[in-house]
C-alpha cells in the first residue's frame, strides 16, 4: 500500500489509522506525485491513497499516467475539495474512490473494503452542490489568452500557484494575476469557482 501526500502531519494521522487496523498493512509514504507514480509503476501495490494536490505531479496527472499503463493498483484520491466535479473527474480517470479529507479517518476503511467494481465517495462529497455548473455551461474559454489557457489547464490538474509558476517559468504573482483576470472574464466569483470551472473543462475535452 502507498500513501502519497505532501503534508507530513496528515500522513502521520493516516498511518496511525493503519497502525490500529490489523487487517491492513502499514503503507509506504511519499510526499510528491512523481515519486508516487514511480513507486506504483515499479512496485504495483494493491492500493495507493493519493492526495489530489501534490508537488511535481498532481493526483489527476498520476491517474492519467496510470490509465495508460497496465498496472492493477487501485487508487483512492483524497482532497480538501469535496465537490462532485472533482470526484467525477477522478472516477473518469480510473480511481476506485474519492474521499474528502475531513472524512479520511472515519471512512478510509469503508473505501478500502468497497467492491472492486464500485466507486466509493465519502459522505461530505457533493454535500454542497455548486451552482457554477449551470452558470458555466455558457462560459467560453475562447476569450482567454494562450497563457491564461495554459494556466487554466494546470489549475484543472490540481497544481498549486507555485507549481504553475515553475512549470510556465513565470512568477507566482503573475499566476495570481492570470487567475484574477480569468475569473473576471468568465464571471466566476467565490472560493474555488475558477478551479471548479477548470476541472469541468478538462472533463469535456
Topology, element by element:
Elements: E1 2-4, H1 8-19, E2 28-30, H2 33-43, E3 47-51, H3 59-67, E4 74-79, H4 84-92, E5 97-100, H5 104-113, E6 120-121, H6 132-136, H7 146-156, H8 161-168, H9 172-186, H10 193-204
Parallel strand pairs: 1-2, 1-3, 3-4, 4-5, 5-6
Helix pairs in contact: 2-3, 4-10, 7-9, 7-10, 8-9
Describe this structure in words.
With 205 residues, this protein is an alpha/beta fold. It is 50% helix and 11% strand. The chain has helices spanning 8-19, 33-43, 59-67, 84-92, 104-113, 132-136, 146-156, 161-168, 172-186, 193-204, and strands at 2-4, 28-30, 47-51, 74-79, 97-100, 120-121. The longest helix has 15 residues, at 172-186. The two termini are 32 Å apart. Residues 128-138 have low confidence and may be disordered.
**Main sheet specs:** 6 strands, parallel
Specify the structural class. Answer: alpha/beta
Helix and strand sequence: EHEHEHEHEHEHHHHH
Proportion of residues in β-strands: 5-15%
Radius of gyration of CA atoms, rounded to a whole number: 17 Å
Q: What is the CATH topology of the largest domain?
A: Rossmann fold
Distance between the termini: 32 Å
Keywords:
single chain, 205 residues, alpha/beta, Rossmann fold, Arc Repressor Mutant, subunit A, globular
Task: Write a concise synopsis of the structure shown.
By secondary structure, the protein is α/β, with parallel strands linked by helices. Helix content is 50%, strand content 11%. Helix 4 runs parallel beside helix 10 (193-204), helix 7 packs across helix 10 (193-204) and helix 8 (161-168) crosses helix 9.
Amino acid at each position: 500500500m502507498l500513501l502519497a501526500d505532501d503534508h507530513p502531519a496528515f500522513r502521520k494521522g493516516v498511518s496511525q489509522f493503519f497502525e490500529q487496523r490489523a487487517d491492513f498493512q502499514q503503507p509506504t509514504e511519499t510526499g510528491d506525485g512523481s515519486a508516487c507514480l514511480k513507486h506504483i509503476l515499479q512496485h504495483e501495490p494493491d492500493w495507493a491513497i493519493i492526495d489530489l494536490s501534490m508537488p511535481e505531479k498532481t493526483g489527476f496527472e498520476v491517474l492519467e499516467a496510470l490509465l495508460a499503463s497496465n498496472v492493477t493498483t487501485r487508487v483512492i484520491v483524497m482532497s480538501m475539495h469535496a465537490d462532485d466535479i472533482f470526484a467525477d473527474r477522478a472516477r473518469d480517470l480510473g480511481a476506485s474512490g474519492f474521499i474528502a479529507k475531513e472524512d479520511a479517518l472515519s471512512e478510509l476503511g469503508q473505501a478500502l473494503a468497497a467492491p472492486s467494481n464500485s466507486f466509493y465517495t465519502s459522505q461530505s462529497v457533493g454535500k454542497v452542490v455548486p451552482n457554477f455548473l449551470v452558470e458555466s455551461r455558457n462560459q467560453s474559454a475562447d476569450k482567454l489568452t494562450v497563457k491564461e489557457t495554459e494556466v487554466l489547464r494546470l489549475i484543472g490538474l490540481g497544481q498549486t500557484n507555485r507549481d504553475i509558476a515553475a512549470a510556465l517559468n513565470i512568477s507566482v504573482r503573475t499566476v495570481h494575476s492570470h487567475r484574477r483576470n480569468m475569473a473576471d472574464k468568465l464571471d466566476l466569483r467565490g472560493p474555488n469557482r475558477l478551479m471548479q470551472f477548470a476541472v469541468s473543462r478538462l472533463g469535456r475535452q
